[in-house]
Target: MFS transporter
Amino acid sequence: MDKPGKKQQLARLLYFIFGATIVGETGVTSLIVSEVGVSVLSKLNFINGVLLFLLPTFFFSQIDSSHRGNLLQKTLRAAIGIVSILFILYTLSAAADLTFYTAFLLILYPLSYLLKTILFLTFWTVAVDVNDTMEAKLSFPEITAWGFIGGLSGAIASRLLLIPFSPEFILLFWVFLYILAYLYTAKFNSIYGQHLVPIEAISGRSKNTRSLIGDIKEILTMPLVKNIGYLYFFTYIAIFMLDYFFGLLPVLSIKTLLILRGFNSHFILLIVLSP
Model:
């Protein structure tokens, strides 16, 4: 039977993680488009692709040997610290009219993408660890729905905050949501942490020493994995191209900075609402 509060706590945690992701994406994208221009997004998306390619080396190969709850907490704690530092550096350098102040925005964009990927993957690993098959069938649809509601809430909140405040304030709101997610993670970890111990600690086995290249070769022999890989490859090319050209049109036709930022927030809201 499902332990009291487990589904609700997972739903709230995903709500804040998804909401923080959308808020961060809205704030960073609005600032980059208005301060640097849309042309740089294609280069940043390329960096996102490289980071996603390198992610298995530094993350997936370690997740089975790490306490999932602690890993999620550490990731959120690192996100809070790094985003806060970059926000402070950007604000101070922009106030001092330093020429390199936009460099901090260019770091925040791929960072937000990397954090989104790591947090979602770690969250669902945690959710799988604490639920058996029957519990997962019953609770995961509702948990996913709350994640969607969190993303929708983040998109709406970002749009409303852009009216009275600057995008810099949205970055602070981004950090605040990460803090809430961290607090919920700490609470959840204190209750269900015993279910999140490393696989090696449960089975008594030592860490697998096979090379990463060998693991990749073994995985790539699976036809289903190949087909999914091809599908994702061409899908993401199409998505990034559409994002670039769709972002270029308003930059060429909209001259008011506030309207441009509002358009970007509406665009992200529509992405959240799309199936």
